[in-house]
Amino acid sequence: MAALFVLVAVLALAEANPGSHRMRYFYTAVSEPGPGLPEFGTVGYVDDQLFVHYDSEIKKTLPRVDWMKEGPEYWDRETQKFQGWQERFRVDLGTLRGRYNQTGGFHTIQVMYGCELGKDNSIRGYEQYAYDGGDFISYDLSRQTWVAVPAEAQITQRKWNADRALLQQRRDYYEGICIQWLQKYLQYRKEALQSKPPMAQVSDRSSRDGLATLSCRVHGFYPKDVTVVWLKNGEPQTQETSRSGVVPSGDGTYQTWATIEIDPSSNHNYTCHVEHVSLGADLRVAWDKKPESNLMLIVGIVIAVVLVLVAAGAAVFFCRRQGAGYKAASTRDSSNSSGSNHGSDPCVKA
């Protein structure tokens, strides 16, 4: 069951063609729902960002981003649409069990559909169905036809290809309606995120071989393209810099990391250098060993103060014990010497 949602995540985060944008929906229906596994659920993505979610447990469509501007009617309409798919899949699961001669057990239907707008304004549309994790049937927009994969899908293929109204409806959706909504969502996102400069944080950690790894986390930026490199005494260390991929932060912005290994005992200066379209000037954050030195100094002072306090406390305790012992002895002696006191308390005498 976990593999279902791993598959959805992998498909959702797969890279699109450079410079293109796409919108996709992923539907999953199961024959035996349980705790944490709804009978039906759907997620929608704009590029690699989750923006909408519905499942049969919450029974309504919810936004997953702040930039959605649609009103209540939109969300009610989406909820009704997904509830219709939920009922359809409940029937389809029974139909497919019959075609595969299955009497029961856990079974799934998955659908992925969406459209892509290329950098050159080219249009792609796709709609793919799977049953129990295997390809079942898909729509070929270029040929405007349905293509069956297993023999069990041929009945569906003949039925859907014979429905001329359905074929025209799919073409109109992928070449028009889907692209229009994608462009609208992209505009919403652009208006909300067009001014998102990156922030950078530098940290370090020691390794067993005596080297140190400097890490620069760059986050909160939009759009996605960014350049991060470590500088050594102002010179780019392109080959020495290790970079992670640029990944979504979950709020429409992106984040990435760049690391470099150094000898911490050297006197070289290291700076994280960031270039992004939102910046008027390149962002530079230097690695500074002084905070570490100051921390060690503070720790040393605290330890010294603690030791002084412990020593003083021990001295007072010792003196009190000594004073109590002397007084007890002098009381005993006074009974034999007519009250004469020949001693003094060393702890109170200067």
From TrEMBL:
GO biological process: antigen processing and presentation of peptide antigen via MHC class I; immune response
Pfam families, per database record: C1-set, MHC_I
Signal peptide per UniProt: 1-16
Location of the protein in the cell: Membrane
UniProt key word Iron-sulfur: no
Residue stretches of biased makeup (Low complexity): 334-344
Region feature Disordered, mapped onto this chain: 329-350
Record keywords: Disulfide bond, Glycoprotein, Immunity, Membrane, MHC I, Signal, Transmembrane, Transmembrane helix
Keyword Transit peptide among record annotations: no
This protein's name: MHC BF1 class I
